[in-house]
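## tool: complex_structure
## caller: assistant
## args:
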Amino acid sequence: MTQTLPTSAPTVSRWRRPLTALAQIRGMDRVVAIVAVCLVILAVIGPYITPHDILDANIAQASKAPDASHWMGTDEQGRDVFSRVLAGARYSILGSIGVVIGFSLIGVLVAAIATVGGPVVDEVLMRITDAGLAVPSMVLSLALSAAMGPSLNSAMIAMIVTGWPYTARLLRTIMRETMVLPFVEGALIMGVTRRRLMIKHVIPNSLDVLIVKWAGDIGNTILVLGALSFLGVGAQPPSAEWGAMIASSQAYMSTAWWAAFAPGMAITITAVTFGLLGESLQVRLNPEVSGQFTRVGGKS
Amino acid sequence: MWIVRLVSRRVALGVITLIALAAAVFFISTLVPGDPARVAAGENATADQIAAARENLGLDKPVIIQFFLYLGRLLHGDLGMSISTHSPVTEGLFDALPTTFELVLMSIILMLVVALPAATIAALRRGGAGDQALRTSAVFTAGIPTFWLALLVQFFIGGKLQILPLSGAVSRQYSVDRVTGFMLIDATISGGAEAGWDAFLHLLMPSAVLAVLFGAQLFRALRTEIIRVLAREHIAVARSKGVPPLTLVMHHVLPNSIGPAITILGVQFGMMVGSAVLVESIFALPGLGSYLTNAVGSADVNALLGAVLVTGLVVVTASLVVDLLQAVRDPRVRAAQNGGGR
Amino acid sequence: MTPDPGTPGQTAPGQPAQAAPALDVAGLCVDVDTPAGRIRLLDDVSLTVRPGERLAVVGESGSGKSVMARSILRLGDTYRTTGSIKVAGTEVTRLSERQMSRLRGSTVAMVFQDPLGALNPLQTIGEQVAEPLRVRGTGRQEAERAAAAILEELGVARAAERMKAYPHEFSGGMRQRVVLAMALIAEPQLLIADEPTTALDVRVQEQVIDLLHEVSTERNLAVILITHDLGIVAGFADRVAVMYAGRKIQDDDAGRLFREPAHPYARGLIEAVPRIDHRIEHLVGIPGVPPHPGARPSGCAYHPRCPFRMDICEVEVPAERPLPSGGTVACHLFALEGNAS
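## result:
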């Protein structure tokens, strides 16, 4: 039962439980966040801690099932799968982060110009954005990357070029909402220029949404980047990029399925981790946004 | 009439979108290393022949004029020649599209069959063990790369267990004449129910693989939406009128939740066409995806860009269909159309 | 904390042998589990409504009045309810969900605050008004005829024709008539109206309240009007129950309550009425704000705002006591007979 407490202060004991509950939720989210950070660290140091050389082919050791020396077995050329997965984290994870940073910059820029640029600029930019949204980024990046000559860089550029419309659309909506907030309208009336307003208030105000979107985007991008490499327009063999690894072991499924299994599992774990990170950030930072954009973002 | 207004407005918007897309595609085509005139004229062409081809393609004219010439050719359905198949790109895409549609539609059916009841149960028993289990599995399935899942499923179910056919659209023993392009229909016409069933079995694994990721997305969106609808006052009102639970779900909850699901399916349709590329190339289905991967292999730019444009057309059409469905479903949307422009 | 057996000192407590009360709530407690722990929304409430009686339940938002309405119809799925709720003699807390849905609409019905939100946007007016009959097996034509008749009766002109319309094509006042028609078509004995006029403009408010009064008299229908607006209570209710922080703090004949409110909170409410446009969401007469359900003060929940606070008020929850006037009050000021100022 409630204790007798001074009249003005609401009882504290009732709020202790919610606080512990909140701490517990935070604990779960913290696990996800820690895993995500570990993945990024792994992507940075991965190539330096591999137990075996990642390009060292040895036909005598080919297609060996996992054992004590080769934790994930060897592939059709006798290369250690575990080492290759570790080394490949750099391409897959850092590559995806690079892509997300790239298209986010373009997306923010387009949204900002559309917001301050007046109705004509807005209409033109939004039509272009719609055109970008009309083609699944998978197909467009496939064509673009193939046209530029297949390589990991081409695939990344292609994904940056095709990925920004989703960010631009979402951010334009958010910025529009911000522009009509009382303090922004007040600043406009006070004579603050729209450009200054955009840099000082509107973009910072959109950051919450953007951060949530980043986490989800990284998860999606890993899937698409892997898919592009798998189709042969991204990283080329003998690269240890995860999609490329799956592509080259594809033909040897019946003799060494683990060589395709391990990198796929790595993609799944990474995508799920960043997806969960996005979810928990979403709940924490802006629960009122429906999250349809993050949910139906361009996936492979 | 709302339908005329809706269709005309959406078609106009769609055309603008497609022109913008064509501009982007045209821009990409100018990026491609190499001389298109040389390519068009053939490998052993003389300098005169190349010059003739250049004039023929309008490549000697300013870029803007070239773009309008390009648009003009598009209007006639001319997407150029494929250098890998030596046939018009339009023709190749036309042959490939039905297979992709069949795959995607089958996937959507599977998605709905699973996601709709699952989302309803999860939403009604919100927070329960079933809801938790479904949500957790949805989170994890949404992170599985489609191409990897396709390989594993093909290897284990098709290869090891031999429950379903490994790949292809239909078994060799049936010779299928192309009538509609849809294998399920064509096989049934050519080889009767038995061949139709065979084609269905071939379609099952690829479409199920494609359905996993998008089904998980759909489930999550539907669940959220149903929970939102359940909290609406008219649901409490319906219950206070004495509407029993099943009627409540069928007449009040689902019709109101299905709107966002239709919108999401419309967006997903385009993405599924994109992902079909992966599934088709793994399961050797002769659709858009196989056409695209072939084009990638031989750096066939016309085929690649043609496929992009056609995909764009498909997506724009899909979003028109979505808007029509929404208007049929919701009287308020119809009223907004009749009320004139926003 | 034992629930009071019955409600002592009720004005004219109709003999149970004569007819079962339209509503008999005894010792009702409602809790919900939130991420922040279990919260008590309704605490030991007892209430009786005679057939044909019009009771107004007033209180600020968060006082538990809507929670009571929803728990009577068992619409709150997250509610953990203890105590007894008898509707027309039937104990609803023990019914199966199936039996409960049969009772809803035909024995007890409800009218909600927002008449647009209360209607399914995808169904025609006619379908929705006829639905309570349709789910009970009445044929389509017969149900539609009944729907047209009751809409006409409630003042919807050209009802048969306008039944084909959708909710968004109706005005706010018309929608509330439709909602009322849905509630009345299966001829319940008790109608609970939860803030039925809050979403309407003032002129339409009066019309709806008059309509409620009219159907109540004509059909001998017991009505519970839940509101925070004392201004609409005066001409409507026979009796008023005042709620504060999940408890019923006073229950009295409407006339007497307005003339001589016993509980300090009720007094504050009534003194506040003329000054602030009949609204009591923000009281001028009472300093402070109502407590959050998760953080209610100890003892009498009103004590931090009460001008007559005594030491005992911070410790002990006051029990309901009969007033000389015939109503009840839950206040320590009335613990000693005739202690009222």
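## assistant note: The CA atoms of residues 215 and 278 of chain A lie 5 Å apart. The first helix of chain A runs from residue 13 to 45. Handing back to user.
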